[in-house]
Predict the structure.
Amino acid sequence: MRILITNDDGIASPGLRAAVRACRSVGDVTVVAPATQQSGVGRSISLLEPVRVEEIEIEGIDALAISGTPADAVLIGAFSIMDEPPDLVVSGINLGENVSADITTSGTVGAALEAYGNGIPAIAISQEVRDARARVDNNAKDVDFTLAIRVLKALLETIRGVSWEGVLNVNVPDPDRWNGEIKVVPLASTMYRPRIEERYDPRGRRYYWIDGEIIQDPPEGTDLYELQRGSIVITPLTTDVTGDLDAAENVIKELRRALRG
């Protein structure tokens, strides 16, 4: 199995190194990842500027750090660096969970969807991190990836040699909290209640910090609900975001009437 690994936490993330350790025992690994933290960029692509690269080493494997986004990394890795597209893209292991419909902003999930949109199966895998500071600290040394590595290895062994297409969004709880369950569940509608803080700089100019408070009472049976209870949660994803066509048609009927005068 030829595996392309990327992430959104950046090339220096301990989660990326953990993913390499998990994958290299199962297949041939290529690593292309953003040079810097890219959380929250979704599936964005660098169309208005060049993407620069630097060769480095990760866990004894030659890797490429790029100036662009996780989706850029997938495109460059799959269609330039590798001789032919990989059998699988692994995005992660992310520092912090990626659950609910809010994953549309996730660079981790965005990379997986970019792969799938180009015909490549993908796994986006994220590790629950209880310390909010560790989510953006690539030098975090207290995150225990042992369970996430076990899960990723087992998934790779499961899908190796079988005909499989799609995206799996995998979220792993802290190993001390795992209840032994693995749940295949739908996305919650949201993970955060928005929290916007208004501030002023020393010159009196206004600026904002965008933040959010994690919802503690999500609907039962959703990914957020099950992860909060210590389950490993897996949600299959698709790039088809088509909504309710019948409902839209009802609206369009009124639009047609209005345009006809």
